[in-house]
UniProtKB/TrEMBL annotation:
InterPro entries: ECM_Regulatory_Proteins, FN3_dom, FN3_sf, Ig-like_fold. Pfam families: fn3 (PF00041). Residues 40-124, 216-300 form the Fibronectin type-III domain. Gene3D superfamilies: Immunoglobulins. Keywords: Repeat. This is Fibronectin type III domain protein. Coiled coil: none annotated. It comes from Syntrophothermus lipocalidus (strain DSM 12680 / TGB-C1). It comes from the Bacteria.
Length: 350
């Protein structure tokens, strides 16, 4: 029994020693091994663009596990970086389209690109129009102004009368024109603002005008006419500065008189003539309309057209004309001879 007990103690001691050696050796090896490296992150997803302005925009995306840094790419170019799930992109061009994607990275590397998002920056805020009053009539006014620069991408012009919005006018090239109608008599103020996809720009300086009732001309009639001209006349009016004359809706001239000559017309042609009275402050009356027709073209008149018919009678009257000339010549000679001979008879003198 004593021998068996001693063997068991020896076996247990050996096992304990082996266990201690295994544990110590594992600890040494574990300290010598490098730490486990993480894998590169996956690509971000759910990228969105917001806060778009003229030269900047913001992008955001969902977080990626294991990512420590994100890079924002604009049109294929590395643009900016962020350690969070969003970034602001600056230094963009106004009214320009951009495509953006994001990559994630850590110490092990960089992911592939995320799904891209495309957006367009806003145009610059419109400048201030400079309108002017073109004409004022008894019910409204006509205003005009130069178009704002094309780089402002103006879509419309917004018209305000007496502080109230009245209309949006589509933008076009060149001079912009707006008709203000159905206004009551009295003082009025008009302002204009440009509008684009960004917003409405600043309003122009207010323009003041006065609507007064100006009576339209009366007694408009045709004083005379020809095959290519017409003289139109009308009654005299009080407090009228001038008159505007229109031919088929187009202004052909102005006058302070009560008549006007329109030239350069076509023969035997009907025209619509309008006469508008204008007061000294620029208010205009309604147009007094008149329809007139030029006369037909007269037949051609030439020298041969007059001489040829006369020469047709010459053979018939020539003998008679010769006799008349002969008798007249003889009488003249007789009278001359009589006076020269002091009263003697002509035959004796001969």
């Amino acid at each position: 029994m004593a021998r068996v007990s001693g063997c068991l103690r020896w076996v247990f001691g050996l096992l304990f020693t082996i266990t201690i050696l295994i544990v110590c050796t594992a600890g040494v090896f574990a300290e010598d091994l490098p730490p486990e490296q993480p894998l590169p992150p996956s690509a971000p997803s759910e990228i969105t663009a917001a806060g778009i302005e003229e030269t900047r925009a913001s992008v955001a995306w969902s977080p990626v596990p294991g990512a420590t840094h994100y890079t924002v790419w604009v049109d294929g170019q590395r643009w900016t970086g962020s350690s969070c799930t969003g970034a602001e992109i600056k230094g963009l061009q106004p009214y320009t389209e951009y495509t953006v994607y994001v990559t994630a990275s850590n110490d092990s590397g960089e992911s592939g690109p995320s799904p891209s998002v495309t957006f367009k920056t806003l145009p610059p805020v419109p400048g201030t129009p400079i309108p002017s009053i073109k004409a004022v009539d008894s019910a409204g006014a006509t205003i005009e102004w130069p178009a704002l620069p094309p780089s402002q991408y103006v879509k419309q012009y917004r018209i305000y009368v007496d502080g109230q919005f009245v209309a949006d006018i589509d933008a076009k090239e060149g001079i912009q024109v707006a008709q203000l109608t159905n206004l009551e008599t009295g003082d009025h103020y008009v302002t204009v603002a440009g509008v684009n996809e960004n917003r409405e720009g600043p309003m122009s300086q207010p323009l003041h005008f006065v609507v007064r009732a100006v009576p339209e001309p009366t007694g408009v009639t045709v004083a005379n006419r020809g095959n290519d001209w017409v003289i139109v006349s009308w009654d005299k009016q009080v407090d009228i500065f001038k008159y505007r004359v229109f031919l088929d809706g187009e202004l052909v001239g102005e006058t302070r008189e009560q008549s006007y000559l329109i030239k350069g017309l076509e023969p035997d042609t009907e025209y619509q003539i309008g006469v508008v009275a204008v007061s000294e402050d620029g208010n205009e009356s309604l147009s007094a309309e008149l329809t007139v027709k030029t006369s037909s073209t007269p037949p051609d008149v030439s020298l041969s057209g007059i001489i040829d018919p006369v020469y047709g009678y010459v053979p018939d009257v020539l003998p008679g004309m010769l006799v008349v000339f002969a008798i007249g010549g003889a009488i003249k000679i007789a009278r001359t001879g009589k006076y020269a001979l002091g009263g003697r008879q002509l035959l004796r003198w001969l």
